[in-house]
Write a structure and sequence with these properties.
8-stranded parallel beta sheet; alpha/beta; binds zinc ion
Amino acid sequence: MKYIEPHAHMVSRTTADYEAMALAGCKVISEPAFWAGYDRSSEQGFHDYFSLLTGFEPQRAAKFGIKHFTWMCINPKEAEDVGLANAVIDLIPEFLKRDNVLGIGEIGLNKNSRNELEVLERHIDLADQHDQLILVHTPHLEDKLKGTRLIIDALKNFSNITTDRVIIDHVEEHTVGMVKDAGFWAGMTLYPESKLTARRAIDILEKFGTDKIWMNSACDWGVSEPLATPKAARMMAQRGHSEEMLDKVFYQNPKEFMSQNSKFTI
Ligand SMILES: [Zn+2]
């Protein structure tokens, strides 16, 4: 089955992972900017990371026949220092011109702090000014419900940002309805230990339908599984879902969302 992995942190992954994903049918990977496994001490550290995401990582993916796209931001986990965040945000416009950059992400909230919210609003403003797609990270566990509400409110304050051009990722049972009712795209992240299992994600699809939703593996530095996405597709097939439905969730939907940026081609 051909599929798109719409959210994967490949800088944390080996070539063996790229090979396994290619063998499983992966055609495209999209990699939001996030934490790099350590806190960066200056904006220069982010400049180097953005250069890697727009230079070396697409070359690494190409060796396995996979197209690599990316998203630019300072992630909420490192956004508590507003001075640093502003310096990083000032670097981003230059990178938005690169061939494999699809938009601003993954922005959002981590601990729902006032500083994180201020940095989130600056990112949304940046997306607004440069007419960019947005990929949103929502907080973990007990902070998720409140954080998702705060993020939706922040997005709604920008009248030019249309819901079709924003995906809110890491939704779970208690937040997917809120995201879909507000008109945004929703992402479901499959993790062995936290966030969603494939079984829970498929339950959600069966309840909420397959429009404007995708699944991803995130596969970062923690316990995670780069093949979580195709494994969920196999479980969906075992539960009797049609090939057309699998193609919609794992290929057509991410293609439809990301194709809103004309740089996205397969
Ligand atoms: Zn991520």
